[in-house]
Design goal:
By secondary structure, the chain is of the alpha/beta class. Helix content is about 40%, strand content about 20%. It has eleven helices and ten strands. The chain binds ligand C2E and magnesium ion (MG) (3 copies). The site of one magnesium ion has 4 residues, from strand 6. The site of one magnesium ion has 4 residues, from loops.
């Protein structure tokens, strides 16, 4: 872990500043109305097994179908929802849509595990685990059908109740995933305290890892942590065939990214899968 921390320091000193986001962000009232009027729609992005190409999971990524502005991305409204007490309502909508979609996929013979992103603000409420459990039951699904993703950098902030709520979720047999790994500062001790099932290596250390030593070293150190703690490893941001070949050779478990699929509306998943099965054959 010491070695990983040194690598991350080197990475930070080398990394260029991120381009300034000039996209519009929205006000509290607008976001509140969007939630109430049902303007939020989940897109879904597959997680596939590197060794076999099999569909293992699907991550719900929320979009806002804005009547004037068109498709609005989460960066433009999640922060507002978190800061102004709207994230519980938003998570409720995303979770319930995702579970309904899971039922429709089941009718079509697809049974990917559903991943939903959860904010630290959601974890302030001690009854969050009960809420999730009742939603899953209401949709006739099992706790093992759901995995909750929490972003690493947020997790390490001082958050009252978060550890308690994560433990309650785990006791109810929900799976937990640590998102954007490598962007926060988890210590091994903290990782051991929270029983995560899955570790998602941030896209900054995935795309081009085969051609860049620092990126590759951080990727492999993260993969080792996942292995040593018995977690499923997921590479985010897999953008081309070179990334795929590198991850396959490295022994990473799952892959997610534009190379496999862009996030899509739920109804598009069966057609994507048929296409992917054909494309995957040519990769092996
Ligand atoms: P995330 O959970 O880390 O999701 C991955 C993001 O990377 C998504 O952006 C996805 O579209 C994008 N991505 C996937 N594959 C690739 C690739 O190959 N290359 C590149 N460059 N990007 C890729 P998106 O959908 O804009 O979501 C951004 C973030 O917003 C998510 O990051 C997540 O933290 C947050 N978010 C999305 N939906 C929700 C939600 O329902 N609730 C909460 N609390 N946060 C959400
Ligand atoms: Mg995520
Ligand atoms: Mg991520
Ligand atoms: Mg992210």
């Amino acid at each position: 872990l010491q070695a990983l921390e040194e690598l991350l320091e080197r990475w930070k000193s080398r990394a260029l500043p991120r381009p300034v986001q000039r996209k519009k962000t929205y006000g509290t009232q607008e976001v509140r109305r969007a939630i109430e009027l049902g303007e939020l729609l989940n897109y879904y992005q597959p997680k596939v097994e590197l060794a076999t190409g099999a569909l293992r999971g699907v991550e719900a990524l929320v979009r806002w179908l804005h009547p004037e502005d068109g498709l609005v991305f989460p960066e433009q409204f999640i922060g507002v929802a978190e800061e102004h007490g709207l994230i519980d309502a938003l998570t409720r909508v995303v979770l319930s849509q995702a579970l309904s979609q899971a039922q429709r996929w089941r009718a079509e013979g697809l049974t990917p595990r559903i991943a939903v992103n959860v904010s630290m603000e959601n974890l302030r409420r001690l009854d969050f685990a009960d809420f999730v459990a009742s939603e899953v039951e209401r949709h006739g699904l099992m706790p093992s059908d759901l995995i909750l993703e929490v972003t690493e950098s947020r997790l390490m902030q001082d958050a009252p109740n978060a550890l308690d709520v994560l433990t309650r979720l785990r006791l109810k047999r929900f799976s937990l995933s640590i998102d954007d790994f490598g962007t926060g500062h988890s210590s091994l001790v903290q990782l051991r305290n929270i029983p995560f099932d899955e570790l998602k290596i941030d896209q900054g250390f995935v795309h081009g890892a085969g051609q860049d030593n620092t990126r590759g070293a951080i990727f492999e150190a993260s993969l080792n942590i996942a292995r040593q703690l018995g977690m499923t490893s997921v590479a985010e941001g897999v953008e081309d065939a070179a990334d795929w070949a590198y991850l396959l050779a490295a022994g990473c478990d799952l892959a997610q990214g534009y190379f496999i699929a862009r996030p899509m509306p739920g109804h598009a998943l069966p057609a994507w899968q048929a296409d992917w099965q054909g494309r995957h054959v040519t990769l092996v």
